[in-house]
Structures are given as structure tokens and as C-alpha cells.
Amino acid sequence: MLRYLYRRAQVRGVFGGSRGWTVVWVVILGGRLLRRLTTAKPDVVYTSALRPGEALVIRSGDRPVPLAGPAAERTG
Fold first, then answer.
1. Pick from 40, 36, 32, 38: nearest CA to 9
2. What local confidence, expressed as pLDDT, does residue 61 receive?
3. I need a surface site. Which of 13, 26, 30, 46 has the fewest CB within 10 A?
4. What does the alpha-carbon distance between residue 20 and residue 15 come to, in Å, rounded to a whole number?
């Protein structure tokens, strides 16, 4: 709903010249900017570039992951 109001206010207010819709657009835009400035950004823990054919497995705990596909056939 907010996205619809933002777009409608932009078209009718900013581009169309309606002062009321321009005010609605400025209020919504201000709220978005305020949220962006006050929201904490997540910390990057690890980055790495993957080459073609490489994969990244993310898991939690000590439970072993059964292999499937060509890797399982090679190991036994």
C-alpha cells in the first residue's frame, strides 16, 4: 500500500504539480530515509570470490552432511 501511495504521489505530485500529493511524497520519502539512517547495518563476517565449479556450504552444528552426486561416488 505504501509503495502504491509513494508512486501515485510521485506521479501526481512531483511530476503532476499537485501540492497535496507532493507533501505525501515528501513524508513517505522522509520516512524511508530516516529508517535507512537509523537501521544498523549487518557486519560482514567473511567474503570470498568463488571460481566456476566451486561451492560454498553453510552449516551449523557438528552433524555430518551426507555427500550426494559425483563427490559421493568418488569417496566410496
1. 32
2. 74
3. 46
4. 12
Contact 20, 27 (CB under 8 A): no
Rounded Cα distance, 40 and 49, in Å: 25
Q: How far is Cα 73 from Cα 53, in angstroms, rounded to an integer?
A: 17
Query: How many residues can be counted in the chain?
Result: 76
Residue with cell 501515485: 8
**CA gap 9, 18 in Å, rounded:** 9
Q: What does the domain layout of the chain look like in residue ranges?
A: 2-37
Q: Which residues contact 9 (CB under 8 A, 6 or more apart)?
A: 21, 22, 24, 25, 28
